[in-house]
Amino acid sequence: MKHWEYHPEYVDGCFGCKGMSVQINAGDADSRRAMPTKAFNAELDAYKEARAQGIQPNGTSMKKIQEAVKASEVMGKAYDGNKMPPAKTINNKSAAVLKELGV
Fold it and tell me: Are 47 and 68 in contact (CB under 8 A)?
């Protein structure tokens, strides 16, 4: 910071000015920005397979897809996240109630 006392304006060719203007960015190495390509493709494939079976998960994450597939198995028919309760709450007892209601 002492550098700016000598000349407060940026001076072209000054190493101190250049060093003060450097910004660090993790770029693609920033793991918080996006998931790895392999995991992303696995989720897309799982979602595509679920949709091909007529299953409509509550979301596109692997957890939501797996919950919807499990709910479909318990209910004996394709799960529809738009019309049915959350997939994680569906068990044998709730599936029986949904069948009685015609859902």
Answer: no
Amino acid symbol at 4:
W
For 91, the token pair is 């068990």
The span from the CA of 64 to the CA of 75, in Å, is 16
> Phi and psi dihedrals of 36, rounded to 5?
-60, 150
Residue 103's SS3 state is: coil
Q: Which of 60, 57, 56, 67 is nearest to 39 (CA)?
A: 60
Confidence of residue 44 (pLDDT cuts 50, 70, 90): very high
> How many residues in total does the chain contain?
103
Token pair recorded at residue 87 = 């997939």
pTM of the shown model:
0.62
80: helix, coil or strand?
Answer: strand
Residue type, 71: A
CA distance 75 to 70: 9
pLDDT beyond 80 at 69:
yes
